[in-house]
Design goal:
- The chain has three helices and no strands.
- With 81 residues, it is mainly α.
Length: 81
Amino acid sequence: MSIITSLALFFIIWWLVLFVTLPLGVRGQWEDNATEKGTEPGAPIKANIGRKFLLTTLIALVVFASVRLALAFGLLEQLVR
């Protein structure tokens, strides 16, 4: 697998994992009765986006390494047959 293909695969995995981690630990303003005037009640109080990017990267690295190992050992080819 070329470097470009590996980077593309990692980017796709990272993006999918991001959508899984985005809702983790988010509390809406309405849950804490802290709704600011002019804002959506469901808007998060504190999104912690930096932590989510870090968590996404760590999970994506594990998934990417697993996929690369499965490809290297031909495990995915056996599933297709």
